[in-house]
Write a structure and sequence with these properties.
Layout: H1 2-6, H2 8-29, H3 35-109, E1 121-129, E2 137-140, E3 153-156, E4 159-168, E5 171-176, E6 183-188, E7 191-200, E8 206-210, E9 222-225, E10 236-246, E11 251-258, E12 267-271
Antiparallel strand pairs: 1-2, 1-12, 2-5, 3-4, 3-12, 4-5, 6-7, 6-9, 7-8, 8-11, 9-10, 10-11
Length: 272
């Protein structure tokens, strides 16, 4: 009864159909004596049957369209997913090619052919600056997960930047050449027998001296790492800006024009 109350229209149709069927059955049983009564009824039944048949066809067509639409929608979604995957793969390929180009540039500028040497290069970005003298020590976005360890040399496309002072998962702190705690053994690019040492100072620059007081060093000489100590040999440090003779130490002292512009550091590479 509750269902009938909630579906009054359907209940009424069912009742009408039931009554029409009763009348039709009575006509058949009476052998046509109620033909004048059943004729309109038969016509009504035929129309109602036709109505429900048409309604059923429409419903079937709508159901087919719904399933067809869903199938088409699924195909569109599949194509969109495939397109997104292809776009992602293309972006990864471009990134890989970009990294390869950067490594080749670094290797060429630093006189290294990393395809033939027994070391790897990991590229990273400067992500934070430490303290007021931010060029002295800064943080990059790669670390132990890439094989980086304390003491590894840090460079860019123009020359030596410094070395790894501390490292962890996803980060490393770099001590630059201009930090007061930094010392580097160097040699002249034109004469590897001429050795010296340079260090950072409180002025944010680099100066040093030649180990041999008789060394033939001149302004404009390019200095590179000697390979003694932490840094591998051949990394460009800069060029000699001035040469003075210290009569107290009997050594030739130099100031250095660094190859790297520490005020515009962005991407770096770590030599493992």
């Amino acid at each position: 009864m509750r269902w009938m109350r909630e579906h009054k229209l359907i209940s009424a149709l069912i009742l009408v159909l039931f009554l029409l069927l009763l009348i039709f059955a009575a006509s058949v049983t009476a052998g046509g004596r109620f033909a004048h009564v059943t004729a309109p009824v038969n016509s009504g039944v035929s129309k109602i049957s036709g109505f429900f048949s048409s309604a059923g066809s429409a419903i079937r067509d709508n159901v087919k369209w719904i399933f067809s639409y869903r199938s088409l929608q699924q195909q569109v979604e599949a194509l969109e997913d495939e397109n997104a995957e292809l776009t992602r793969q293309l972006a990864e390929e471009k990134l890989t090619q970009q990294q390869l180009d950067e490594l080749q540039e670094l290797a060429a500028l630093l006189n290294y052919d990393y395809t033939k040497q027994e070391f790897n290069i990991v590229t990273g970005d400067v992500i934070s600056l430490d303290g007021s003298n931010w060029t002295n020590i800064f943080t990059i976005n790669c670390g132990t997960e890439s094989g980086i360890k304390v003491g590894d040399a840090v460079v860019n496309g123009t020359g030596l930047i410094g070395k790894i002072e501390a490292t962890g998962e996803g980060w490393s702190k770099v001590m630059s050449l201009i930090d007061e705690g930094s010392k580097v053994s160097f040699t002249l690019a034109r004469d590897r027998k001429q050795l010296g040492v340079v260090a950072g100072n409180e002025k944010g620059s680099v100066s040093g001296y030649m180990i041999d007081g008789e060394s033939l060093v001149s302004e404009g000489d390019v200095i590179i790492t000697s390979g003694l100590g932490t840094y591998p040999a051949g990394l460009e440090i800069g060029s000699v800006k001035s040469v003075t003779y210290n009569s107290n130490t009997l050594l030739k002292e130099i100031t250095v024009e660094l190859a790297v512009n520490f005020k515009s550091l962005d991407k770096v590479a770590v030599i493992l």
